[in-house]
Amino acid sequence: MELETVAKVLKELGHPVRLKVYKEITKAGYTGIPVGDIQAKVNIPASTLTHHISALVSAKLVKQRRVGRVLFCAIEYGALEAVIEYLTSECCINEQPTDQ
Question: Which residues does the UniProt record annotate as the domain HTH arsR-type (predicted)?
Answer without folding.
Answer: 1-95
